[in-house]
Amino acid sequence: MPALTFTGPTGRRSLGALYTTAVTALADTHTIHADPSVYDKAGLLAYPPGTVVRAGGGYPAPQRWTRDAAVNAWNAASLLAPAVGRNTLWSVVDRGPRGPVVQQDDQWWDQMVWILAARNHYRITGDRAFLAEAAHTAANTLAARRDSDFDGERGLFRGPSFMNDGISGYPSPPAAPHVRSSFVLDHPGTERLMCLSTNCLYYGAHSALADMADTLGQPERAQSLRTDAARLREAVHRWLWREEAGTYAYLLHDDGTVDTSQEGAGLALALLCGVADRRRARLVLDSTHRQPHGIVNVWPHFSRFDDSRPGRHNVMVWPMVHGLYGNAAAEAGRTDLFARSVEQLACLVAGSGDGFYELYDSNSGAVDGGWQEGGSGRAEHFDSEPDQTWSVTAYLRLMHDGLFGLAFAEDAVRLRPCLPPHWGPVSLHGLRYRDMTLDIFLSGGGSRVRSCAIDGRPAQPVVRADGTGHHTVDLVLEV
Fold first, then answer.
1. Phi and psi angles of residue 145, each rounded to the nearest 5 degrees, phi first
2. What kind and span of H or E run contains 324?
3. What is the pLDDT of residue 268?
4. pTM score, whole prediction
5. Fewest beta carbons within 10 Å, which of 220, 225, 325, 455?
């Protein structure tokens, strides 16, 4: 595993130590044996390694969950352990009548993030056999969702929001007091919601599958997908963009009313998936509300919650959501917002004994699972589960994609770092990329590359994918 070293102020060195904690947890605690009868429904897992990345501690086994598998592969596993990342993606794929398809369970809105994670895996590894099977899987999955969940009148996809499978992440209605369940779909009308995060992921999935089609020599298919993606982007802006507020709304109800709450994952994915143009991205970053300890799932409190009893999927900090927002800030070159995101997450983890928990109280920073309607018919206090894998991989992605700006393409990795000036020099040693090992050094501060040298020679900040051996990359950043 790579090593991350900060040589500047002592306070920043803890960020490097936390990186070591995270990579160790991913490799040791969160990588588990994959029972073929459970995880290899499509017959695509490789033995060896015969392992996958689990969702986390505190959960029952097996943990064959699409969203967790895809997010953890996308965030870090495909880069740090490609064979395990590949297995983790295949572990949530079934064989359907038309061939491989992401498992068709009762959380269908989770399936699109798998397509983005699959494209990312191919870009990192260059594995053409994986690409061909993944494109087939993605096409079958997207076709199933378009047949079932596309609202032709509004041009948006129906389904709950990316992070909020719990009803505490929604206003009332659709939250129904008479329903004794925390699961979102048990509450009437939730299947017809049209949410920002989910539609941003559908846009990203269309774009990702178009890229796969291009690589596989299917230009007409790629163009059709990009046309559909453009129409979806227009629909998101028509229904959910709030020009007067400089941000996106949370969701559109089936009756046409709009909930203008701030959805943390939705805003982050609007930037990361390319739904927001530069102007909108700047406005979003400037207008986003941030709680004392980070970006929350949904802001503000719904009427049935408050600071003393915050909703589990409402005003709480989930590191995975918070991390996505930090990466969106880094991609936009906002070193100030990126630094704040990393430092807040590091503070939360340090405050919980270097444990990467599921979620935290947004005001106190304490480990807390928040409140949510449950089987009793009233709000119940939930636990925040320990050893949450996507909290671990959220931090790793902040370092790899955010700080070092690793942007993978089919033929190269481009470096677009975002180094907060007060952090001082930082280095990443021993990063494996295809048939190479890279040592990357950053100095200066900012998000613009002033100079780059590869193996001591001036160069563009690009490492071609066809190289071999050991290489050093030195970048000097400026504001």
1. -75, -40
2. helix 319-331
3. 98
4. 0.98
5. 220
Pull the structure tokens for residue 97: 């009548």
**Whole-angstrom distance between the N-terminal and C-terminal Cα of the chain?**
31
Provide the greatest CA pair distance for the chain.
68
Give the phi and the psi of residue 113 in degrees, each rounded to 5: -65, -25
Answer yes or no: is pLDDT of 9 > 80: no
- Nearest alpha carbon to residue 138 among 204, 199, 50, 235: 204
Cα torsion at 54, 59, 65, 69 (round to 10°)? -30
Residue 182 and residue 166 in contact, taking contact as beta carbons nearer than 8 Å: yes
Q: How confident is the model at residue 10 (pLDDT cuts 50, 70, 90)?
A: low
Amino acid residing at 24? T
Number of Cβ atoms within 10 Å of the Cβ of 217: 8
User: What value does the mean pLDDT take over residues 432-454?
Assistant: 98
Strands (E), 180-291: 194-195, 241-242, 247-248, 251-252, 258-259, 262-263
Whether residue 293 contacts residue 361, with contact meaning beta carbons closer than 8 Å, is answered with: yes
Q: How far apart are CA 201 and CA 453, in angstroms?
A: 36
Show the tokens assigned to 8: 């500047």
What is the DSSP track for 164-183?
Answer: --BGGGS-TTTS-TT----B
Percent of the chain topping pLDDT 70: 100
pLDDT interval class at 357 (50, 70, 90): very high
DSSP 74: I
Q: Which residues contact 143 (CB under 8 A, 6 or more apart)?
A: 98
**C-alpha–C-alpha distance, residues 65 and 95, integer Å:** 16
* Alpha-carbon radius of gyration of the chain: 21
List the beta bridge partners of residue 150.
157
Cα–Cα distance for residue pair 453/418, rounded to 1 Å: 17
pLDDT at residue 8, rounded to an integer:
77
DSSP 3-state of 290:
coil
329 touches 399 (CB < 8 A): no
Indicate the SS3 state at residue 342: helix
